[in-house]
Write a structure and sequence with these properties.
By secondary structure, the protein is α+β, with helices and mostly antiparallel strands. The protein has a single domain, classed as Aminohydrolase, N-terminal nucleophile (Ntn) domain (Glutamine Phosphoribosylpyrophosphate, subunit 1, domain 1, 4-Layer Sandwich), CATH 3.60.20. It contains four helices and twelve strands, in the order ββββββααββββααββ. It has a five-stranded antiparallel sheet, with helices on one face. The protein starts with 8 loop residues before the first strand and ends with a strand.
Length: 197
C-alpha cells in the first residue's frame, strides 16, 4: 500500500549484535515537513524499534509499547525478550487490522538467545530475518543489502553496509532524505550515531 509519507529503514543481524539505520526526512506527498525526524527508538536497554510510515502512528505505538513493556516486566519479574516484544507488537497490529496503524516496523535486539531481528507489516505479520528494509526506499536499499550481506558480519561491518543501504535509498527515493541515524545493539547495550549527508 502506497503512503503519502516515505522513509528508508534497514536492519541487519550480525554475529555480535544487530544494527538499524534510518533516514530522517518526514514528508507528506511532495512536501518536506522536517529533516530532523526520529524513526528509531530505544525501547529497552537492548531492544530497538525502527519504523517507516505515518509518524503519528509509530510515535503512538512506541509510547504504548513502553508502558506495556513496564507492565510485562513487573508481572514476569524479568526483562522482555526480543521475540516476546515482537509478538506483542504483532498482536497489537493484528488487533487493529480493520483500522490499521500505517507502519512498517523492524525490531532488533539482543537477549539470552542472542541477536534477533524481526520485521512486521501493518497487519501484524511477524517475520524473523537476517536483514530487512522498510519504507519507500526499500527496493534500492535491498539492492545493497542483498549484494553485501554475509553470515559472518560484525556490528562494525554491518553499520557501514546499513549506511550504504540508506544512502542508496536517499539517492533514489524522493521521500527519503536528511541525515542517517544508526543504532547498534550488542549485549552491552545500545549505541547510536548520526551521519550528516
Amino acid at each position: 500500500m502506497a503512503l503519502p509519507t516515505g522513509a528508508t529503514v534497514v536492519g541487519i543481524k550480525c554475529t555480535d549484535g544487530v544494527v538499524v539505520a534510518t533516514d530522517s526526512l518526514i514528508s507528506w506527498g511532495t512536501m518536506v515537513l522536517s529533516t530532523k525526524g526520529v524513526k528509531a527508538f530505544k525501547l529497552t536497554d537492548t531492544i530497538v524499534l525502527a519504523s517507516a510510515g505515518l509518524t503519528s502512528d509509530y510515535q503512538m505505538l512506541v509510547n504504548e509499547l513502553k508502558a506495556r513493556i513496564k507492565l510485562y516486566e513487573l508481572n514476569r519479574k524479568k526483562p522482555i525478550s526480543v521475540r516476546a516484544l515482537s509478538k506483542m507488537i504483532a498482536n497489537t497490529l493484528y488487533a487493529r487490522r480493520l483500522m490499521p496503524l500505517f507502519v512498517q516496523t523492524i525490531v532488533v535486539g539482543v537477549d539470552e538467545e542472542g541477536p534477533a531481528l524481526f520485521t512486521l507489516d501493518m497487519g501484524g505479520s511477524l517475520i524473523p530475518d537476517d536483514f530487512t528494509a522498510a519504507g519507500s526506499g526499500t527496493r534500492t536499499a535491498f539492492g545493497v543489502l542483498e549484494s553485501e550481506y554475509r553470515d559472518d558480519l560484525t556490528v562494525a561491518e554491518a553499520e557501514e553496509i546499513a549506511i550504504r543501504a540508506v544512502r542508496a535509498g536517499i539517492a533514489r527515493d524522493i521521500q527519503s532524505g536528511g541525515t542517517i541515524h544508526v543504532m547498534s545493539v550488542t549485549d552491552t547495550g545500545v549505541s547510536e550515531r548520526t551521519i550528516e549527508e
